[in-house]
Every structure is written in structure tokens, then in C-alpha cells.
Amino acid sequence: MRLSRRTLLGAGLASFVGGCSSDRPLVDRLVVAGGERGGFYLEFAQLLATQLRAAKVARTVEVRSTEGSLQNLELLRLRQADLAICLADAAAQSREVVALGRVYENYLQCVVRAAGPARKLPDLVGKRVSAGPPGAGAALTTNRLLSAAGMHAERAPVIANLHLSDAADALAAGRIDAMFWSGGVPTRRLTDLSAQVPIRLLPLDRWLAPLRTTYGVVYQRAQIPAGTYSGVEQVSTIGVPNLLICRPEVPRAIASKIVDVLVNRAAGLVPAAAVGAHYLDPNSLIGTSPLKLHPGAADRYRTVHG
Questions:
Q1: Cα gap 306→301, rounded to integer Å
Q2: Domain with CATH 3.40.190.10 in the chain
Q3: Which numeric CATH code is attached to 107-240?
Q4: Low-confidence ranges of the chain (pLDDT < 70)
Q5: CB 31 within 8 A of CB 80
Q6: Which InterPro entries match (predicted)?
């Protein structure tokens, strides 16, 4: 199919020339929608940008700091980003995107002060809780979790929609009683918080079954290892796969080259401090349900598998 400049995404993809020689980048510029400062999304996006430049996928790669998955989907829709990091449950709400790979596990983290009384999720009824900013996938997952736990109407927490750093500051100062965050582990901003004030993570896996009944198997049981944050014990929580996504009209050659980066440069895509699960091998990268793989990515994975 012949693509017009208007159809293609972004300034970088608008300059794509299919016949580029192997020693030249495929495009001049790509824009990657990442996440909040201090979070895993943005850190992964920055590592990805470095590898995309090194592999000559693009001459320059701009990483945008965003509120998270929901804003990233909107940036793709508006053609203000070419690639995006997105939670699978959030991505399932869009019919305008496809996946390039499943890249790592996201952990829903409910953080409270260790000195406080909260030991389980229902202890937060009527308490001041940050669910993350409106553009974050954490806000979507948290609202679904609270509904599954029956924490609505008169049993609802008092919800604030704070950014990661603001929520951590508010929790440390006692202005809120808990904060939800969905990301890889450890999340750097939460590591800093645990050094500032003792924290506890609440177990959330009790509500996995009702979440899966309502929303499907996109939700999984996940373990956050002991010591992920200072003084924090192992805890069971809700895991959601994180996907690298794009719009379907991204040229096949670019999608294929990005798969090569995910497969062959995996070591350069894992933050040094990461202890959570990542899926940067061909057998795991292809598990992008509920999204379909981009056709160029699917073809490349078939070649990799042999």
C-alpha cells in the first residue's frame, strides 16, 4: 500500500525511504512516548532511544515525558508520537494501535507509610489516596481494582490524581495515606521515598479473580521481591504486561528493524537496578494479547523463530 506523508506518523516517519542503504538510518527522527520522570516507563524509553539510534533505525530519537499509558495512546492518535509504552489493559481500549512486542511486567504498587495502620486494601476506605494522574494507566487499573474490591460509593477512598513525584512527596509528608503506582520494579522515585521514610506495600492479589472475570486474563499474579525497596517484604500484587506499540501504518521495514533491536539489543534495554520480569526474548516478546502484532513485526519474529 502506498502511504502519503499525511498518513505517516510524525516528522521522522514522513521522511522514510524504503530503499535506504544499510549504513544510513531508516528515518531522520522518531518520537517515543514514555512516562513520568522517576518511573520505569521513561527509563525504558530512554534506553530504547539509545539502542534505536545505535542500530540506525533513526538518526535522532526524542523521548517524551508523559503521564503514562492513556496519554501515550492519545499522542499516537494525534500523530504526535511514533512509538509508545503502554499497559496492556489500557491498550485494549484502542482499536487504532498494534504491538511491536511485550517488553516487561508492570507491577501495581500500593504504597503506604510503614508506621501507618494500613495492612490491607480495605483499610483505605475513606482514606486519602492518590491513584495517579488522569493520563496514567495506573489510574485505570486502580479504579478497576477498587471496584473489584467493592470500594465504591460510601466505601470509596478519597481519590487524588497526583503525579508520581508529587504523590511520593505527599505520602512522605502525611498529606495522603496511600499512593498507587504501576511500573517496573524497583521504581527509582519509590526507592528514593523508601530512603526518606519507611514504607510498606499492600498485597493486592486477593482481587485478581474478580478482575480477570470482568476484564480477562490481561491481569496476572505478580511477586515483588523482598528488598526491592528498603525494608519492604515480599508482596503479591497485580501484574499487567507492558507493550511497545505503534499505529498500524508504520512501514514494515521500520517495525522489523525495531524487532531486531528488541531481540538483539535486549541487554541494553534493561535498567541496571531492575529486579522485575522482562520479556525481551522472541518467545515472550510475541505475547502481546489483547493487541495484534504489527505485520512487519510478526514477519520478523517468524524469521527469528526459524
A1: 9
A2: 10-104+242-305, 107-240
A3: 3.40.190.10
A4: 1-22, 306
A5: yes
A6: TRAP_TAXI
